[in-house]
Amino acid sequence: MLACLAIGSFAQEGGSYKNAIGARLGSGYYDVFAASFKTFLSEKGAIELNLGFRPYSAYYNAYNSNWFNISFSAAYQHHFQIGDVDGLKWFIGGGITAYNTFSDDAYYRGFGLGIFPTGGVDYKFPKIPLNVSADVRPTIIIVEPYDYYNRFYAGNFGIAARYTF
Predict the structure, then answer these.
(1) What is the per-residue pLDDT for 109?
(2) Domains of the chain by range and CATH?
(3) Which of 17, 25, 65, 79 is packed most tightly, with the most Cβ within 10 A?
(4) How many Cα atoms sit within 13 Å of 84 on the Cβ side?
(5) Which of helix, strand or coil describes residue 31?
């Protein structure tokens, strides 16, 4: 009962929020799961930070190789209201991602760096402290750790759910 009262006391009125923390699931280019933090710097401008990881497993000609990515992404997002729906916004922006791949195999390890434009939708539930979003981040790789990565990856999609405060 006390937990419900405490959570309810932090809920914002309407569909706006200042900060949110939660998780982002991605399509898996450099991360498949990420901790996500979003903060608004102004009414329309926000920064989203993601700390993520992705495990890999590959099997080539009776050779099994496993490796693991850790990534950090930062994006600026400029939000625009969608119609008269309280809390529903679309956004555009851009960002940068840095990732490192760890492996016992020297071929599958190293540092990577990319930049991306971003766009998506963001919804803050009016009566509960929950924000959900969906985005696309087509990534241009500037530094690639090994030949597995393409210089451009268009299919980088993600969804996020965050607790707002």
Answers:
(1) 87
(2) 22-164 (2.40.160)
(3) 17
(4) 0
(5) coil
